[in-house]
Amino acid sequence: FKNVCSFLKCVDSLYAGSGWTCQIIDIEGDVEGEDRALKQETLELWQRDLVECVEELIRNPALRDVMAYVPEHVY
After folding, report:
1. What domain range includes position 55?
2. Is the dihedral of CA 4, 10, 13, 18 positive or negative?
3. What is the 3-class SS of the chain, one letter each residue?
4. 52 φ, ψ (degrees, to nearest 5)
5. What is the pLDDT, as a whole number, of residue 40?
6. pLDDT tens across 10-64, in order?
7. Is pLDDT at 9 greater than 90 in this prediction?
8. Does 39 reside within a domain?
9. Which InterPro entries match (predicted)?
10. What is the pLDDT of residue 5?
11. Taking Cα atoms as reference points, which of 57, 37, 7, 3 lies closest to residue 68?
12. For the chain, what is the domain count?
């Protein structure tokens, strides 16, 4: 690559796969704060749809010859 811009342009052209979703969750810990209440924290939970991920793997022609749909006994 000649420069960072050309590298990032190439990276942006790659297939991104199934999308990510973000769910905000609030959790309560087991540590008490100064006010004697349990501490709470807000977290981001990033996740993908499992069915979409499996569909992408099955549709990928590069994996056609190495994917097995039945159990195999390997010694």
Report:
1. 19-70
2. negative
3. CCCHHHHHHHHHCCCCCCCEEEEEEEEEEEEECCCCCEEEEEEEEEEECHHHHHHHHHHCHHHCCCCCCCCCCCC
4. -60, -40
5. 94
6. 999 988 888 899 999 999 999 988 898 999 999 999 999 999 999 999 999 999 8
7. yes
8. yes
9. Plavaka
10. 95
11. 57
12. 1
